[in-house]
Write a structure and sequence with these properties.
This protein is 79% helix and 0% strand. With 154 residues, the protein is mostly helical. It folds into two domains: 94 residues, no CATH class; 60 residues, no CATH class. Helix 1 runs antiparallel to helix 2, helix 1 crosses helix 4 and helix 5 runs antiparallel to helix 6.
Length: 154
């Protein structure tokens, strides 16, 4: 099950790259309206998830707890919409590779901190030395992706 989870996470990463490319092309076809493209992306995703949640059952019971939740638990959709908008808007401006290495760097740094400190009610998973070294290697890769061309000029 652990390997299946890793494979699924890897496929989610591929989906994020594909989504950024597809949505930026859609925005271009919509005369550059990045908000409309992001809206369409979220709208179709909402429809698919709504159908799946309905057929799984218990959707009404699950939604009934929404009013009793603290506000910070309800901002996931807003954060997701902002992230999708940014990918749609930035992909044609800075390139897909630059966009995604910066997204990955942001995800990596924030997730290591969230795991380490147990923020937002998550389980505490201390940042072992190997994890910090691995994250540093990834950040070096980000720097090379963004600025590697300048090394040739030295």
């Amino acid at each position: 099950m652990f390997l299946i989870s890793f494979a699924l996470a890897f496929l989610a990463g591929i989906a994020i790259a594909l989504q950024a490319a597809v949505n930026s092309q859609l925005a271009g076809a919509m005369t550059g309206n990045t908000l409309a493209a992001a809206f369409y992306s979220f709208f179709t995703g909402m429809l698919v998830l709504g159908v799946l949640a309905f057929f799984r059952g218990g959707l009404g019971d699950s939604l009934n707890v929404i009013p009793s939740q603290p506000g910070w638990r309800l901002v996931g959709g807003v954060l997701g919409a902002g992230a999708i908008f940014c990918t749609v808007w930035l992909a044609p401006r800075i390139g897909l590779a630059n966009l995604l290495v910066l997204v990955i760097a942001g995800q990596l740094l924030s997730s290591v901190a969230i795991d380490h400190f147990g923020w937002l009610g998550t389980a505490v998973r201390p940042a072992a030395t190997s994890k910090v070294v691995g994250a540093s290697v990834v950040l070096l890769g980000v720097a090379l992706t963004l600025f590697g061309d300048r090394l040739k000029e030295l």
